[in-house]
Amino acid sequence: MKFSDRLIKGRLIKRYKRFLADIELENGEVITAHCANPGSMLYLKDPGAEVWVSPAQNPDRKLKYTWEIIKINHVLIGLNTSLPNKIVEEALQKGLVTECAMYNCLRREVKYGEN
To answer: What sign results for the dihedral spanned by CA atoms 58, 3, 10, 12?
Structure first.
């Protein structure tokens, strides 16, 4: 997936209070990033794990970074729960989901049924 800004690599120090993570960036700076995943993330919070953060778009935002990705056992895992629809849309548009290649249109969040 293409992010609007270049992601910044770091190492996880700790995740706490569900929405906060302390991360040491490659330049040695320690930051607190917003974690947009409110789940327990039981297996996704190992101190020292490689992580990537994005800079906040809003200059007035309290936390200036968002935790986007963690690497566990050589696998990159997206943590930002606001991105899955965008990731799937991008994959479909690029023809990366061959099972859907026969469809020629894409619509998001289409209402189905009465409610």
So the answer is: positive
Are 42 and 72 within 8 A, CB to CB?
no
3-state secondary structure of 99: helix
What pTM was computed for the model? 0.82
pLDDT tens digits for 72-113?
Answer: 999 999 998 888 888 889 999 898 999 988 888 888 778 888
> Which one, of 14, 53, 18, lies nearest residue 33 by Cα?
53
Cα distance between residue 47 and residue 74, in whole Å: 15
pLDDT tens digit string along 64-82? 999 999 999 999 999 988 8
Match domain 8-81 to its CATH number in 2.40.50.580, 3.40.50.720, 2.60.40.10, 2.30.30.230: 2.40.50.580
At 42, is the secondary structure helix, strand, or coil?
Answer: coil
CA distance 20 to 1: 23
Task: List the chain domain ranges.
Answer: 8-81
